[in-house]
Specification:
Blueprint lengths: L16 H19 L11 E6 L4 H13 L3 E6 L11 H11 L2 E5 L3 H10 L4 E5 L5 H15 L6 E5 L4 H13 L2 E5 L8 H7 L7 E4 L2 H5 L4 E4 L13 H11 L6 H4 L7 E4 L11 H4 L6 H20 L1
Parallel strand pairs: 1-2, 1-3, 3-4, 5-6, 5-8, 6-7, 8-9
Length: about 300
């Protein structure tokens, strides 16, 4: 066990508020040390196995660079490099890698792959993304909000588009930190009822769904969206399905008319990759209220904080 109440980072749902604040503090401390050129090789001699079923620019670079800066080493394992899901039980893979490495980061399609890795591994497992959630992204997002806004008090987040894995992690984090969240999606793209059931146990803020994009954006401090079509979605390879989905989601595009309903000092966030003129217009994503690059850069710092606390 590291310095958190959990052995793994599988979901924000599993963290205490104290855990979350420890991650923020550790991430900011490591970021400050890097900026000042101070030594922070807290994972010297340690190795992270990075398992990628789903490719990603930001996830691979940020984890690999993060381990290097912490004095450790990262091994990239693609689908072709492992036998997970192709004959070898996850139990055996987890048992073997636990004897070679000091941590596993897994970016997979099925959430059960990551939970099973965590069940059988003797070393910390970090969820780099599943179809159900994306905890590392949301730690980075809220670290960015903390830096730019200073506080989470009296804050409303507007989520627009698809009630997807990133949305689920926003729901968990907002519930843990007492942040209001309004989610606007088409009727048949609502977030999972599982997440709504989970957060009922501890949410002290208003977290609800609406079909109305303008209602969600009204007086929002943070406006967030994500790509409407992700890798692995049926529409990803089907042109006709893609056109239908884009048409259905067009009322949820984040544009100048929509953000006019948010607070004047709102911030825009997007985990990237972004598709301009689809889920967001250039005037918003490339405008002065956009935090997309600080947000992306904080993937490095947030994940360093997580790794240092779990793998030390």
């Amino acid at each position: 066990m590291g310095e958190l109440s959990v052995k793994n980072l599988i979901s924000i749902h599993d963290l205490t508020t104290e855990d979350i604040n420890k991650i923020f503090q550790k991430s900011l401390d490591l970021k400050d040390k890097l900026k000042k050129g101070k030594d922070h090789k807290e994972l010297e001699g340690k190795t992270l196995a990075m398992v990628f079923e789903k490719r990603s620019t930001r996830t691979r670079i940020s984890f690999e660079v993060g381990m290097t800066q912490l004095g450790g080493h990262a091994i990239f394992l693609s689908r072709e490099d492992t036998h997970i899901g192709k004959g070898e039980p996850i139990k055996d893979f987890a048992g073997v890698v636990s004897g070679y490495c000091n941590g596993i980061m897994a970016r997979t399609y099925e959430h059960s792959t990551v939970t099973e890795l965590a069940k059988y591994a003797d070393i910390p497992v970090i969820n780099g993304l599943t179809n159900f959630n994306h905890p590392c992204q949301i730690v980075a997002d809220f670290l960015t909000i903390k830096e730019h806004r200073g506080t989470f008090d009296d804050m409303k987040v507007a989520w627009l588009g698809d009630g997807n894995n990133v949305c689920h992690s926003f729901m968990y984090m907002c519930a843990k930190l007492g942040v209001d969240l309004t989610i606007a999606t088409p009727e048949d793209y609502k977030p999972s009822e599982t997440v709504f059931d989970d957060i009922k146990k501890y949410a002290k803020s208003d977290i609800f769904w609406t079909i109305n994009a303008r209602e969600a954006a009204e007086d929002a401090d943070i406006v967030v969206t994500d790509t409407w079509i992700s890798m692995g979605d049926p529409e990803y390879k089907d042109e006709e399905s893609r056109k239908k989905k884009i048409e259905k989601f067009s009322p949820y595009q984040v544009n100048a008319d929509l953000v006019a309903h948010a607070k004047k000092d709102y911030y825009f966030m997007h985990c990237l990759p972004a598709y301009r003129d689809f889920e967001v217009t250039p005037e918003v994503i490339d405008g002065p209220r956009s935090l997309i690059y600080p947000e992306a850069h904080n993937r490095l710092h947030a994940q360093k904080g997580v790794m240092a606390l779990l793998m030390k």
